[in-house]
Amino acid sequence: MAAYALPALYAVLVWWFSTGLILLLDHRPRATHGVSMAAGTGVLALALWAIGASAGDASAGSAYVAFTAALVVWGWQEMSYYMGFVSGPRTRACPPGAKGFARFRAAAATSLWHEAAIVAGGLAILALTWGQPNLFALWTYLVLWGMNLSARLNLFLGVRNLNAEFLPEHLAYLGSYLRVRAMNPLFPVSVTAAGLATAALVLAALAEGITAHEVAGLSILATLMALATLEHGFLMLPLPSAALWQWSLPKISDRGAVPSRVAAQSDAEGR
After folding, report:
1. Partner of 63 at 20 to 30 A CA spacing, among 103, 129, 173, 231?
2. Would I find Membrane among this entry's keywords (predicted)?
């Protein structure tokens, strides 16, 4: 049982702490972001080296290294976006009255360069692991990418909980692209697909005859997918998800007020 419990616990703790650390750094004064980004870029270089160095190792430990390093690469993507260094050509609120494709195009322009950076990160990991036995860095990155994209599309289409307190002050305009809605047509598809993927990974981890490397890596991936599914649930369920990272979010009640009002107004205009 420890062969499954330890990787799962590790994934939960690293996911929770790394998310909180990024939120903490994003909400620090703007004057600190340059130093944080420089340090993060140094850690990114180490993570990419670790991915390449562990790619040929099929031990249980290499699965932990691959997962951790891929999470660092993803964390750099999130930091660069939410600190405003790699975002998109549009840095202002949604145009009043924008609907349909015009609204989507405006929203996409807020993160165009960010999406390109995500693709570049994925290609870098693919190149570092090509033809090697340890692909868990690549799979970790793809899970994070896919579930993040799903969450952002759901936020755009409309969810009950916007979690606007996660947005730093300088990105408050992003709230205008979000909607407060009881449900949207994509959400059931997203949760069902994520649930099925989680189940498939659990079954793969429990399969007979697999190596310790595969047990560790698949257990970590299954836990990560379950956490991503849970995060989707937070978008609709009346649960205070921000409380999980209260230590990294200053003045939670005040942070969410302005973005939530803008988003609610955008939803009213879009109907």
Report:
1. 231
2. yes
Alpha helices (H) along 158-256? 186-206, 212-236, 252-255
Give residue 217's pLDDT: 98
3-class secondary-structure state, position 140: helix
Are 185 and 157 in contact, with CB atoms under 8 Å apart? Answer: yes
- Indicate the domain borders of the chain: 2-270
Distance (Å, whole) CA 91 – CA 243:
29
Between CA 188 and CA 20 the distance in angstroms is: 27
Distance CA 48, CA 51 (A): 5
Q: Which of 243, 221, 239 is nearest to 143 (CA)?
A: 221
Name, in order, each residue with C-beta under 8 angstroms of 17's C-beta and a sequence gap of 6 or more.
Answer: none
DSSP class per residue in 147-181: HHHHHHHHHHH-BS---GGGS-GGGGGGGGG--B-
**Residue 146 backbone phi and psi in degrees, to 5:** -65, -45
Task: Report d(CA 83, CA 26) in Å as an integer.
Answer: 6
Q: How far is CA 58 from CA 40, 53, 63, in A?
A: 28, 11, 8
Evaluate the CA torsion angle 166, 171, 177, 180 in order and state its sign.
positive
Using an 8 Å Cβ cutoff, are 20 and 245 in contact?
yes
Token reading at 166: 């996660």
For helices 60-82 and 33-54, angle between their N-to-C axes, nearest 10 degrees: 150
Cβ(125)–Cβ(73) below 8 Å = yes
Retrieve residue 21's tokens. Answer: 């650390």
Mean pLDDT in runs of 10 for the chain (271 residues)? 93 96 94 97 98 97 98 98 95 92 95 97 98 98 97 95 85 92 96 98 96 97 96 87 82 45 41 39
Q: Is the pTM of this model over 0.85?
A: yes
